[in-house]
Design a protein that fits this description.
Elements lengths: L7 H10 L5 E3 L5 H7 L3 H8 L33 H14 L6 E6 L6 H12 L4 E7 L2 E2 L2 E2 H4 L8 H4 L3 E6 L3 H18 L3 E6 L18 H10 L2 H11 L5 H23 L19 H17 L13
Parallel strand pairs: 1-2, 2-3, 3-7, 6-7
Antiparallel strand pairs: 4-5
């Protein structure tokens, strides 16, 4: 799984700054955007466990969420492919005179992909109201920014495309909110793209299969976690104004953990999707070869079903 520790202000502040009419194309770490818009913990867990209640019918990798009803497009595995897709969507909005922007999230590592170059050039040339929200968290898996590029970050690249840009303290949730809100207003007013670079730090490992101590020091991680984390900074701000306390913090953490583990348990006990669902939605109308393959699988499972744990899945229809 992919961890979001240390970059909480990036997705929290951005999600709050956008309107629900704005279509969002996320990467892996923006589950907070989904939650802000109403994606439930049960929906998160059903997707990760690929249960029959998952709205993608168990056909996506874990953490590849989708929420059409919330105006958020499905997460894609391939780095940066969501960026040109977002520009195309923004161009469609422009043609149809829709008063909304399209926001796309990506990391500084993904910014090295050619898709990002093509997307920014297209957005600028066609004046598409697009927010390019770059999460510069210091590392592209194990590759540090010093090995990723020689220039001054990502924001300056906008100049080459004739695009407006802003660099923001990505660990300050208020700065993120105000910056993204202003960028959205600018994109709408001028029907133009805006590049937003959020300077933050990935405290957690790249994923649960990563050991970041192989390429960075514990002292470095501890500094960002204890001294400059977005959650810690927000807590200090609220506590100083008597709006929060360590007791409330502890109680809230326990409450959240309970809610998460309860949803975890519910999803873990749910049945998987009907195996025949894998053939649904491939085409608008099922083609002859898809229909044939579906029936072949049905016949196979009906004949040899005893060799499969079919009791853990929804019945064949």
């Amino acid at each position: 799984d992919v961890i979001s520790s240390g970059i909480n202000a990036e997705y929290g502040g951005s999600a709050a700054a956008l309107e629900t009419s704005d279509t969002v194309f996320t990467q892996y770490r923006e589950v907070g955007v989904y939650l802000w818009r109403g994606f439930t913990l049960d929906s998160v867990m059903n997707q990760c466990f690929a249960t029959h209640k998952d709205n993608t019918k168990g056909r996506q990798m874990p953490i590849h969420y989708s929420a059409k009803a919330l105006n958020i497009q499905t997460v894609s595995s391939t780095l940066a492919t969501q960026v040109p897709n977002a520009v195309g969507y923004a161009y469609s909005n422009k043609i149809n005179n829709k008063n909304a922007v399209t926001a796309t999230f990506f990391g500084e590592g993904a910014a090295s992909e050619g898709d990002v170059h093509a997307a920014m050039n297209m957005a600028s040339t066609l004046s598409c109201p697009t927010l390019f929200i770059c999460r510069n968290n210091g590392y592209a898996i194990s590759t540090s920014t010093s090995d990723q590029y020689y220039g001054d970050g990502i924001a300056v690249r906008a100049i080459g495309y004739g695009m407006r840009c802003v660099r923001i303290d990505g660990n300050d949730v208020f700065a993120v909110y105000n910056g993204v809100r202003a960028a959205r207003a600018l994109a709408l007013e001028h029907s133009c793209p805006v590049l937003v670079e959020l300077m933050t730090y990935r405290v957690g490992h790249h994923s649960t299969s990563d050991d970041s101590t192989a390429y960075r020091s514990i002292d470095e991680v501890n500094y960002w976690d204890r001294e400059d984390s977005p959650v810690g900074r927000l807590a200090k701000h609220l506590i100083a104004r008597d709006l929060w306390s360590t007791d409330l913090e502890d109680a809230y953490a326990k409450e959240c953990r309970k809610e998460i583990m309860t949803a975890f348990g519910r999803a873990e006990s749910e049945r998987g999707p009907n195996p025949l669902w894998m053939f649904d939605d491939v085409y608008d109308s099922p083609s002859p070869h898809i229909t044939e393959q579906r029936e072949q699988l049905r016949e196979h499972l009906e004949r040899y079903g005893d060799n499969y744990p079919l009791d853990k899945y929804m019945p064949l229809d």
